[in-house]
Predict the structure.
Amino acid sequence: MSPYGKQGFIVQLVYLLLAIVWWAGTGFGFALRRRVVVLCYHNVRDNQRERFGRQMRHIADRARRLTTCETVGWLGRPQMVVTFDDAFAGLLLNALPVTRDLEIPITIFAVTENLGGVPKWPMPEDHRDRDERTMTDLELQTVDKDSRCRVESHTATHANLAGISKQCVREEFVRSRLRLEKILGRDVTMLAFPFGAYGDDIIREARAAGYTDLFTLQPTLGRTSESNPLQGRFPADPDMWPAEFYLTTAGAYAWLGPWRRLLARLRKSFLVHSKPAQAPKTT
């Protein structure tokens, strides 16, 4: 399923049309040539291998590690970074051979207390990855030894960080980092927030736990000319429409970031103003 089609075909089509308008407004991508688009995949299943391969071939010439992104050429398009959340084992056969052949660097964010089994975190009954196995310790070690692959943290249990205490957030971060460092034999400095949930307190806890690069699910563009300690990502899936993938990699869905932030502010404002006034206390 397309990540833009979860609310129905009409919404998906409207998103596509708005992306085309945004793309045209940026000079068909020229104005975004100093930007970075970070893609966030999850799994790649057997029947998606061919479509995933086509997507990777489209971006292979501008795929970079986040730390080595740079503007390329006068007509350069946004640089690409490819990431995968949850470390599903399906990547071993259906994604990694493709990215290795095309020399595309990737980062895999692993849930350290859910290695080698099906996801234990809440997922809808009909979610297609609900019964998919994640990588084992040994598989993560093998993947991380590839110079173009890097394994990093997706917390310990994939908890919704916005719904747990500060102490639990801290434990999620620290337990995951220590476990991964023991498995991989190196420092772990990157963290992807599960469910895209984060805030100022959560960011502070992540930094205190030793993470220097933080990844959200906000569809925002990075810049090639500066460090991006808090980096937004764009959802990606092998089943998305080719036009959607093309426009996503051109930065044309960047309008979603400001739009979602506006909706969040309006929702928060509505909730504040809709709360009934409390009766004054009597003594």
The beta strands are 35-41, 79-85, 106-110, 149-153, 190-192, 213-215, 222-223, 230-231, 234-235.
